[in-house]
């Protein structure tokens, strides 16, 4: 009969290699995040110099800018669609059009558009380069010549974007969500890499959290940090993800994600890869990965960039249920994209994308929840059977929390030293507080959502999950100002 | 060293770094506040002498003294702001002469050798305000900078330096520049037409490289000076379709008796883009003599040529409209459809589409 001590030692010997592997994974992953943070510093500095250069801004705002089409998919947006479209139409840009696609809404979205914009039906004389669900009708506005509305059968967001892509007239297309609040000069800033002659296939801008911000006429006029824990922590999360995550990737071979809520693409490349994949639930990431493949496979020396100063604001989930749906969908989409394009993994043919970015997303993002859970379970098990020293486990937890905190605070430092949108001292204090509490509860909750995604992916579930929004906080003078603006347009 | 000791050391270090960062963030907030106050104070201390100088109540020396007292970045920003308010060139020459001797100005100009492009940008920016003939070589180097932002800023200094050799250099490099720099340089060269035209005329030779010719013809289109017309006309029969296309596009800017026959000849070009642009040019020049050719082009096999020809006819007043009405009875189905579509457009629509 084996003694208890011997059994404990046997278990300890058994789990030790797994534990060491998790430790190595932890060190490598965090070192890589640290590298991204370091890489992002010169990028951020260069972009903030360009963003501040008045002379360059004057040139950029001139007729040198290429015309672009804004693609807006809309589904059941009756309440806000008229205002959203108006904010897109009134963006500062010398030549742009708005292509709105009503994706078979079941509410009064289409009627709201017809009455607000005085729409009239036009013949369906537009080329169909990417097949979509049948289009019911095309409309133009009698009041705004740069508005095109497509009413089509429901086919999802990707299908709507494809319909808009078909109808877009201009060589660059900007995909946005109907509820995204784009800053007035964001388009001019977003077009900068194309104008500076950089070889770019797509450019993504920053997404920031709009909850609690003051909104006037579809624009954020006063940036504030939401004091509630869920939107507050997501504010820190977005700053970290955009300011050093994506910026760092610019120096490491290009971004693998451009947010579907705010990304500018070359239309010819999008048509070459047949637009968005309607089977994907994270069509934005899938599109960018496919675009990278296309560029590499056809030896096109273009990259996918992120630039931090064009800003769009979005509302993030304020309830755990809605957040859960969102994060579970993102993770499910990530898993699907990673498996679909697994050919890229450590494939030198795809350059740094195949050798660095893709493996990072595969191991560092997709598999992270499983490895993290294994780490938690193994630690608890090790503590119960006495295979792991309690002091060691607690210190390791402290180091892990500290590293997470350092990365979050790193994102805040970048924000503070560059664009500095949150000007109130109290906002800075709140951001620091949310960076501290992120590791206690929020992180474990999102881990659970991401783990659920594996289960749903295995069961081949393809649902999006309903997203409910609270709406933006208007300013006191918004209503009267809105009336004035509408009258003056 | 045990694992526990290492982890404890690491955790304490992390804690210290976080505390340091928080202190840094707070200090940065304070620094920004102080800097904003100082910058505002500095700007207002410069603003008064500048304002008095602008209305002729102060000398350039007083401005130079005021600028000397603020940091170079604020001084540079203030100078650029004044230029943006369009100071007469004689007044600016006087200021440039005084500032050229200032130590801070020389320091900013020396930034042209910096490894950091934003510092080189400062050198280009200051040249755009106080550059002179003696800065020729410096401007030459900045125009050839590898960063487009520096090239754009240096382009603004072309007017200050106004040197024929540099204009020639810009002309020779223009096809290789990024879109925005090229666009900006074309505008700058157009403003310096008295220096640009002789150099441009010299280059508009059929034997030149088609890529270069295309860019130069685009510039000739922007300048639209009669001196260039004699050089652009022969390019309408150039071997390269791209050059013929650029020529067809440029000719619409030249209201001259020789232009219309050249565009009429281009209506028979083998390249549909050239035919389309020629039709557009004939419409813009109100070439009523070309009505038969434009009517015939309504039956072209390419939609864009039919469209441009239809629009051109609609721009030719009643005779053009009559031709469109007649075309609605023509045998060619596509020509009939195009004539019907164009006839249905409003006057405003015709203008908008013709200029698009």
Order of helices and strands of chain A: HHEHEHEEEHEEHHEEEHEHHEHHHHHEH
CATH architecture of the domain at 31-66 and 171-365 and 465-488 in chain A: Alpha-Beta Complex
Structural shape of chain B: elongated
- Tally the helices of chain A: 16
Task: Tell me the name of the CATH class of the domain at 257-356 in chain B.
Answer: Mainly Alpha
- What characteristic shape of chain A results from the CA principal axes? globular
Low-confidence regions of chain B: none
Structural category of chain A: alpha/beta
In short:
Chain A is 54% helix and 15% strand. Chain A is an alpha/beta fold. In chain A, the strands form two sheets. Chain A has a ten-stranded mixed sheet with strand order 3-4-5-2-1-6-11-8-12-7, with helices on both faces. In chain A, strands 10-9-13 form a three-stranded mixed sheet.
What does this structure look like?
The complex is a heterodimer of chains A (489) and B (356). Chain A has 16 helices and 13 strands. Chain A is of the alpha/beta class and 489 residues long. Chain A has a domain at 31-66 and 171-365 and 465-488: Spore Coat Polysaccharide Biosynthesis Protein SpsA, Chain A (Alpha-Beta Complex), CATH 3.90.550. A 10-stranded mixed sheet of chain A has the order 3-4-5-2-1-6-11-8-12-7, with helices on both faces. In chain A, strands 10-9-13 form a 3-stranded mixed sheet. In chain A, a hairpin with a 2-residue loop joins strand 9 (214-216) and strand 10 (219-222). In chain A, helix 1 (4-52) runs parallel beside helix 14 (390-417). By secondary structure, chain B is mainly α. Chain B is built from 22 helices and no strands. Chain B has helices at residues 3-54, 60-68, 72-84, 89-99, 103-110, 117-130, 136-143, 148-155, 158-161, 164-173, 179-191, 193-203, 210-223, 226-235, 241-251, 259-266, 272-284, 291-297, 303-314, 317-327, 333-343, 347-355. In chain B, helix 6 packs parallel to helix 8, helix 18 runs antiparallel to helix 19 and helix 20 packs across helix 21. Chain B starts with a helix and ends with a helix. At the A-B interface, helix 1, helix 2, helix 14 and helix 15 of A face helix 1, helix 6, helix 8 and helix 11 of B.
